[in-house]
Amino acid sequence: MSIAIAQARHIFGLKPGITGNICYHDEQTIVYPAGANCILYNIDQKAQKFIPGSEKSDGMTAIAVSPNRRYVAIAEKGEKPTITIYDLHSLRKKKVLSSPDVSTGEYVSLAFSPDSKYLVAQGGKPDWMLLYWTWEKSKVMATTRTSNPQNPMGEVYQVSFNPQDNTQLCVIGNTIFRHFRYSEGNLKPFNFQKMEPQNYLCHAWVSEERIVVGTDNGRLLLFEAGELKNEINLAKDDKSEDSSASGSTQITAIVAYSKGFACACGPGTVYLFEKTDDKDFFKKAREIKIPADPSNSADPAKPQQQVIKCLTVSPSEETLVASTDQAQFYYLQLSSADIGKGDQATFEVLAQSFHNGQILGLDVCIRKPIVATCSVDRSVRIWNYETCNLELYKVFAEEAYSIALHPSGLYILVGFSDKLRLMNLLIDDIRTFKEFTVRGCKECAFSNGGHLFAAVHGNVIQIYSTTTFECVINLKGHNGKVRSIVWSADDSKIVSCGMDGAVYEWDSFTGKRIGESVLKSCSYTGVAVTPDGKTTFAAGSDKTLKEIADSQILREVPAGDMTLTNVALSHSGRMLFAGTARGTMWSVKFPLTIPGEWQEHQGHGAAITKMKITYDDQYLITVGEDATILLWKIQDKEGRGLKRDKEVGWAEEILITKSDLEEKNASMADLNSRVEELKMENEYQLRLKDMNYNEKMKELTEKFIQEMESLKTKNQVLKTDKDKEEAKHEEEMAELMEKHAKELQDLESANNQKLMLEYEKFQEQQAKMMKMQEDYDRQLQEMEESKERALEELTEYYETKLQEMSTKLEQSNDEARQQSREYEETKKQIEEDADREILDIKNKYERRLRDEKEANMRLKGETGIMKKKFTSLQKEIDDHKEDIKKLQAETAKLNNIIRNLEKDIQGLKKEIQERDDTIQDKEKRIYDLKKKNQELEKFKFVLDYKIKELKKQIEPRENDIKNMKEQIQEMESELERFNKQNTQLELNITELRQKLKATDKEMHQERQRVRDVEAVVRRFKTDLHNCVGYIQDPKMLKESIKALYQKHVQEDITETASVGADIQKEFSRQKEHLERSVASLRKKLEKDSEIHKADNVRIMQENVSLIKEINDLRRELKICRTHIHDMEAALGLHSKMGNKGGDSTALAQLASKQPSALMERKLDEQVKIIDMQMIEIRRLRSNVEDLEKVGGSRPPSGPALPPMQTVM
């Protein structure tokens, strides 16, 4: 007895409607919500890590990743909304934040500060409270209401931090655009806007002071410090580009990056804006669209109508990722967007596309690791649970309610709203090959053997054969909708449960009910059977899990307040799992005990609709109303499970239609032929290039030899010049050295004399200065003494006068005052005069002293200049010495070169001697060859005979070539005729198609008429039924019959009936005639195409044979030419320069050596014959070249043939 272990491995899906529902953790990992979990998805490795949601939460509402990429904050709604912060590296919970200040049930937006230490959270309606947290201390630093007082109903959508400032926030919403600054425990608003409020949907900071804001009417507003700097109207651009495009132009998402920003505007469209030279402006650089979906057979353009709700850019700014309102991911490489600026780009699907509606059907395969699902979004998808990939999907025009996978994995059974369809799973498509008239089939299942399948039709379960497609058995008994059907392991039983509270066991061979358990108070939704088929487990609306055996409920395990929606039992019979209405998955202790024990796992964000366990008991697959598919890795406590036979492996067969295979084979054949042609062409081109390169090599070698010779002559000339220059240089150097030595001595002596003179002058000036200073001191002392003496005399004089005047003072105070005033004035004047004289004398002598000092300084400066000149001359001398050393080194190098060149000259002399020896040897050989030449004259007659034979062979070949040309021209005329016939047949086909369309339209009109008539008949029946109700009341019966007559009977009913019958006959006759004509035309077209194909093949074969013959002829001609060339060389008649004079002179020399009349005559005859043969060879060559030109200029007949080999 144990509880099985279950661990979430992979989830397919995305939860839309969450703020910031996609973020980057690092360059390869994205963070997004799915179900009740937060997922870390590695794009490269395609692996997922799970952060499960809190147990008592009602789901996530907002997500934010910190700027340092270490933490993720997840806001969850509930009675008390919470924010949970996780470490993204260890996936451990760091903090749980909750505040009594928030009276709402959710947070609508989260944002981390630039240093990741603070977190701001925006509460929901009605009070829209903004909280500023120090999250590491779980402390709320400040709170404020962000709603607009003038518009209390306005919602807040987004909050963000300034990317450079922890204290500055921005909040936007409906008529809300506010800046807040945190200071002293308060959030104070600032930067108030001076414009009319709008519905702001999103925003992003593009710099420290500037924000881009998007509105619901397609406007981008650029604010700087609260002031509107620029406005871009994207709604106008959309209308001008595509006036027929429907849908709103709301700007739903903005993300900033270093080069600019990206914004989502309108359905499925993102615009990239880049910075311009003008700092207030951004230019639109690129438009990116969501691509159409070719797998959507009903409406391929439907994905393009998705609204992009969130954008994010990778940390390296290489990738832009977008999430949509229909739970899809798309991405774009920004580097590729930069390369093709100006063009329209398209997003690519990230990972795979997901369901975007409630998933209703689920089934697993026995022979392949695949899962099939169907959803309210009208799509059928095939997933691989080992590679975690979407293998195949298709969107249909009708809703799919149920799905079943054949054990082979090659077929699926899908219950659509109109019919039940059996489909082939092809390599790249899902195609219907059989339809059953079962409307709205809510449950279907293949037997484990695959030979039967069960489908629910209302309250009846119908069993069909998969080979004959006939209904074998109808299982009747349920009074309500059947919610689940399960086959037993050996296919002998079917267990079903329904809304009527019944769980029935059926014998699949006889169709009899062999077990039943009815509990009307419970509406069953899920059922599972043990491998032996004896025990059934059922889950329903009464919040219990029931164990049923032999039509009796053995155990009833209560589930508390939780409603169980489904139940699944492993094929080993040791693990039991249940799904709940909240989306959690229970691993139940098995066998069941009362009270029950289970372990709860957070999985889906809404009720689990279906659960299946794979046939190797490795995985549990659950699907829910939240459009997600969750793969759980399962094992029992002991780690036991069904061991899969590794040798057998998974089936790798796939289905492909014959026409597709033929098309692919044909395309492969075409490609192979093209490859062969290209190989031939490449070989030919390579040969041509080799020839060109050989010619170039010859030219280059000749040039090189000429240049070598010219360089040798130049080298000799340079040697002589060098010797002369060396001699000159040595003489000049000796002269310069002597000159420099003399100049140096002269300069030294002159400088020494000048220095001595200057020093003497300096001493004289110093002595003068000392004398003048002594004179000045003496004069100053004398002046002071005279001044003191004068003062003493004056004081004595005035004292006597004072005594005299003191007597008179008594007589007149006025005179005394006047005398004292005069005394003071005279005293002042005397003092001033004395001071002025002293100052004049002082200034005079100071001026003289200054002049002397300046002269002294000037002399010192001149001596400094002389010293500098001396040092510069010394440096020049040192430089000259270094130059001399360098020149000596160069002369040493040149001497080495001269020695090497002398060695080379000796080597060349040796070579000349060796070549002289070889020339003597070759002269001997020439003498021997002349002897051989006399012998070769004997072979001349044999050569003449062979040349005549060659001429005879060449003439019939030329005739054959002419005949082949004529044949080719005839074939080309035939090809033209066939092309004309093809065009005529295509016109006929188009006419017939148009006729077919017309007949289809008429047929639809007739069907509509039939429907109208049926409707009239139904109305008449209902009216007649109402009349029959008055059968006891004759008056009412009469009146109702009259009303019936007036309502339904017209006067010309017989005429219309007859006319309708005639029209029907004419229509059927015309239809039969058209069908017959179409069939005959099809047959004719097939015959014509076969004949045409055969003719084309014949022409192609003839062309190939002709080209082969031409190539053979060319090869023979080449052999003949080489043979003739060899013969001419043997005769000594083929010289390099090719002049005939040399041949005649050689023969004349031979004749002069052996002067006989007969020999001379023979030689003359041979020369004439050889000349004639040379003329004939030239003529044949010109003919061959003409033929090649004709072959090259001939128009191509049909497909390209292998190239003809040219004679080298």
Report on the architecture of this protein.
The chain is of the alpha+beta class and 1208 residues long. Helix content is 43%, strand content 28%. The protein is built from nine helices and 57 strands. The protein has a five-stranded mixed sheet, with no helix packed on it. A four-stranded antiparallel sheet has the order 1-57-56-55, with no helix packed on it. A hairpin with a 2-residue loop joins strand 22 and strand 23 (260-265). The longest helix is centred in the middle third of the chain and has 152 residues, at 658-809. It is flat and about 180 Å long. The model is unreliable at 242-246, 1051-1056, 1133-1155, 1193-1201 and 1204-1208 (pLDDT under 50).
Please work out how many helical segments DSSP would assign.
Answer: 9
- Tell me the strand percentage band: 25-35%
Q: Strand order, main sheet: write it out.
A: 22-23-24-25-29
Give the structural class. Answer: alpha+beta
C-alpha Rg (nearest Å): 56 Å
Instruction: Report how far the terminal alpha carbons are from each other.
Output: 89 Å
Averaged pLDDT, please?
Answer: 85
